[in-house]
Design a protein that fits this description.
By secondary structure, this protein is of the alpha+beta class. The protein contains six helices and ten strands, in the order αααββββαββαβαβββ. The longest helix has 14 residues. The radius of gyration is 22 Å and the shape is elongated.
Length: 234
Amino acid sequence: MPSRRHAIADDLRQQIRMGHFKAGERLPSEAQLAIRYTVSTPTLRSALALLQGEGLVEKIHGSGNYVRRPLRRITYVGGSGTPPIPLLRATARTTNLQAHGDLPALLNVPPLSPLTEFLYVTHDGKTPHSLARIYVPRDLAPADCLSPDQTRARLADLHPPLSEIQERLGARLPTQEESTALRISTSLPVLSLTRVATNTAGRVVEAALLVLPGDRADALFTTHLATDEGTSTE
C-alpha cells in the first residue's frame, strides 16, 4: 500500500496530466492542500517534494507551487560548451573578489589573489534554466559583462594563446544556493561541469563552473576516429 505522501503525489500527478492543473498554473496553497488530503503540512510538503524532484512542480519562494512548463532541453557539447538556445535569455552579474575555497587550486593562484566572477543565469520564460560561474584573473577580465561565449572568445584572443581546455563532468545534488537560484528540488541531480582553460605559458586564464539541472540537460562528447582510406576490405 503506498504511503500517504506517495498517494497524494500520485493524485496531483494525475490531475496535472489530465489538465486539471495547467502548465504555469499555481496550485492551491499548502495549507489548502493539507486540509483537502487531511494530512499534516510536513506530509503534504513531502508529497510536493516528490513532484518537484520529477520536474512537474516548481516552488517559488514567497509565491507558491506552480505546475512547471515544459522546458527546452540543453546539450553540453564537449570542447565548445553549451550552444545558444533560441528564446532563452540570460541575466549576468560581475563581482570582484579574492580567491578562496577551491578557487586557488582551480586557477593555480595564491589564496586571496584578485579575481573577477561572472555569474550567469539563463531563463526559459520566467523559469531559471541553467547557472554558470566564470572566474578570470582580475588583470585578464573584460571591462564589460559579456555572455559566456563572448567571454570565452575574448580569452581565446589573448597572447599567449590557449593551449589546453580541461573539462570535468559529474553528477551530484545541488547546493541549497543552486536549488534556490534554479528553483529545483535539492533531491534533483544536476550535471556539474568544471572547465579550466590554460594558455601556452601554463597560466590558467579561466575556470568555469556550470550547473545544469538533470531534468533538462545532457552532455554530448563525440570522438572522430581516423580511417585509412587507402585500405580496402574484401
